[in-house]
Specification:
There is one protein chain. With 182 residues, the protein is mostly beta strands. It has 1 helix and 12 strands. The chain has one helix at 2-19; strands at 32-36, 39-41, 46-54, 59-68, 72-79, 87-89, 98-103, 115-124, 133-139, 145-147, 156-159, 161-165.
Length: 182
Amino acid sequence: MKTKRIISILLVSLMLLTTMQPFSVFAETENAVITVESVSAAPGATVDVVITIENNPGILGASVKLEYDSGLTLIGAINGEAFSPLTFSKPGKFTSPCIFGWDGQELSVEQVKDGTILTLQFQIDANAESGNEYDVKLSYEPGDIVDFDDLQPITVDMVNGVVSVVDYMPGDLDENDVVNMT
C-alpha cells in the first residue's frame, strides 16, 4: 500500500514537471535608445538640438547618418559626455545627409554611461513660417554600432525629433529669443 502511494506521488510529480511551461531566469534586455530632442524657436534663430542615449550597453564604435530638412542649416556639432572616451569625427561639410562617427580602442565598464552624445546647432531659415516643423533624423546600417566586449553589432532604437518654428516663445519678454525669468 505504501509503495503504491509513493509511486502515485512520483507519477503526479513527473506529470506536473513535464506540463509546466519553461520560464526564463534572465531578464529581458532593452535595446539602447538614441533620441533626437524636439525643440521650438523663432525664424532666424539659432537652436541647439541635443541627442542622447539611454540603456548604453557599452558602445565602442558608432557611425550614424544625420538628415535634416532644408529649412535648417547645421552650423555646429559638439561631442557629448556619454561618448567622451571615444574619438569623435565630424563630417567634412555640414550638409544633409552627413555622417558622424565615434571610435575607440578600449572602454572600461566605468566609462559606459547614458546621457548626451552630441549637440547639434542649427540656424532656422529667417523666412520660416510659424507652425513649420523641420525633421531631424538619425539612422544607421546594421553593423555600424558595435559593443566594447567583442565588437559585435548592437541594435539601437532611434527616436527622431523636430524643430518647430514659433513666432512667440513663452518667457521671451523682449523678443530676443532668450527666455528670462524677469
